[in-house]
Amino acid sequence: MKSSLTAELFSNPPALHGEGSQYWGLAWPALRWLEHNVEPGMATLETGAGSSTMMFAACGAEHEAVTPSADEAERIRAECERRGIPADKLRFRIGPSHEVLPAWEPRPLDLVLVDGAHGFPYPILDWWHVAPHVKVGGRILLDDAYMAPVGILVDYLGSRPAWRVEDAVGYRTVIVRKLADELPDFDWAGERVGRGLSFAYLPTARRARAALRHRVFSTPAGLAAVRFARRRAGFLFRN
Predict the structure, then answer these.
(1) Using CA atoms, how far apart are residues 33 and 166, in angstroms rounded to an integer?
(2) Residue range of the domain that includes 128
(3) 101-104 long-range contacts, Cβ below 8 Å, gap at least 24?
(4) What percent of the chain stands above pLDDT 70?
(5) Is 239 within the bounds of a domain?
(6) What rounded mean pLDDT belongs to the chain?
(7) How many domains is the chain partitioned into structurally?
(8) 20: CATH
């Protein structure tokens, strides 16, 4: 039986971030989603880099990762080599995404992960630069969708006929599918966008649970409990 890379990373998270001392990976359900949905030869791109980059490479995607840190890119390549993950189809674009993407040589994309800078307006800029190059039928994953700068984008895309908010993976990551090529309207048509921290994209029951979970596990005591559980548990957290 083929082992799960998500499970391996969960059991032994690589210290890829914070000068090689920390792990800030994509939420485990979203990483598992990538493992099950990314196929060899898919054209993919992400803003941000980490365990998701390793997963794209392991799945055989033609992948580009945009990160401002060359050192981070080297740590990811080294970790891929250590784990036997082929990285011949992996390319890093070094620099902030708002500088890299306008100069990026575009190609048709099957899947994009937006998980770079989360301050306003960077998630929107990431989407703006890649959206025209996502194939009709292709998908964008918007991570940390409960944060207002990402939530604004989720709200907007949910109001457009050219996009469909399909699902939420776990409680942090929203999947959006492109249905048609469309340039946004030049005038505001009354769409409801803009909010604080919110899980409004989840069904009501999951929304309440996610809000409670976020409040608990974003505290120092909650994070310590997660670290303890990770050391003791032999299974992935359910979301």
Answers:
(1) 13
(2) 5-182+189-232
(3) 101/47, 101/66, 101/125, 101/126, 101/129, 101/130, 102/129, 104/64, 104/129
(4) 87
(5) no
(6) 88
(7) 1
(8) 3.40.50.150
